[in-house]
Amino acid sequence: MKNILKTTAVLSLVITSFIYISEISEAITDAISRCLNVIIPSLFIMMVLSDYIIKSQILDWISFIFTPLAKIIGIDKKLVPIIILSNSAGYPIGAKLLSILVKENALQRKQASVIASYCFSAGPAFTIGAVGLCVYQNKEIGVCIFLSILLANVISAVILNRAFRINKIEIPDRIGSANNNSIIDSIESAARSLFSMSSIIIAFSFITTIVKVMLNAFGLQNGGVQTSLLLSFFDVTYLSSLSKTSQYYLPVIVSLISFGGICVWMQNTRISQKNLDIRTALFIRLGISILSGVVFKVLFGDYCTDILKTLSHNTRIIVNINNFSSSICLIIMIFLLFYKKRLAFQKKV
Fold it and tell me: From 123's CA, which of 10, 28, 35, 138 has a CA 20 to 30 Å away?
C-alpha cells in the first residue's frame, strides 16, 4: 500500500512538472540566481572561517575570553564562540560547527541537537538588508528583528542548558591542525556544504511552485500578505516580496525568520550528516520562534509601529543585488584550488 501511494505521488509530481513546466523553469532560474547573488557571497567566507576555527586550536586559545558570558548562559566557554558565530553568520553555520564537534567526539549527539536549536539565526545581513531595507525601507526595523531573535536565543540557551544539564559539560582540549593545508581543507569543506545547500534550494523551488499552483487553484494566489507568509514557512526568502502594508504582521514575520523555513532545515539535515538529531532541534526551534515574536511584540512592537507611521510613503530604497560574476569567479577559483591540491597529492604519492 505504501509503495502504491509513493508511486502515485511521484507520478503526480511528474505530470504536474510537465503541465507547469514554464512556471517551474522560472522558479529554478530564480533559485539559481538567488544562490549566486545572495547565498554564496554572504555565507562562503563565514563558513570557511568558522570551519577553520573549529578544526584548529584557535577555539582553545581564545576561549578564556568568554568565561563570564559562559557562566551566564550556562555552557562551556569553548562553545560560546560557536553561539556567537551561529547567531551572526547565517542559518547553517551552527549545524555545521556542532556536527564537527560531534564527529570529533567532543560533544554528544543529543546535547549538540539541543544546542543547535538556539545556535540558529538569519544573521543581521538578512534581517537588516533583505527585510529591514528591502521591505520596510528602514534598517532600524531590521535591527529590532535581529535583536528580538538574538534575545530569544539567549533566553532559550539559559533555560535549555540547565534543563538538559548542558552546563555540566566540559569540552576537552583538542589537538588542532593549524598548518598550511588546514585552511585549504576548510575552503573545500565550505564549498561542498554550499554546493549541497544550493542544490537543496534549487530543488525546493519546485516544491514552492507546486504550493503556488495549489493556492492558485483554490483562488488564494492573490491573497497578498497571507500568501507570502504561507510561502515563507517553506522558503523564508519569500518574505522579501512583502510590502510596507504588512506592518501589522511584524511579530509573525519575526517568528518566521526565527524559524527559518522548511528549506533551511532541509539544508541543516544535509550539512549535519546525521551527527545531529534535526527533529529534536526543529521541535525546540518552533517554541523559540514563537518566543522571538513575543519578544519583538513586547520590546519593539510600539517602537517599530511609530517608525513606520513617520516614514514617507514616497520614500523607497531600491536594493539591486548582483554578485553573479563574482560568484562565478569564486567557483572557478575553488575548482582550480582543488585541482592544484590533487596534483600536489599525486606528486607525493
Answer: 28
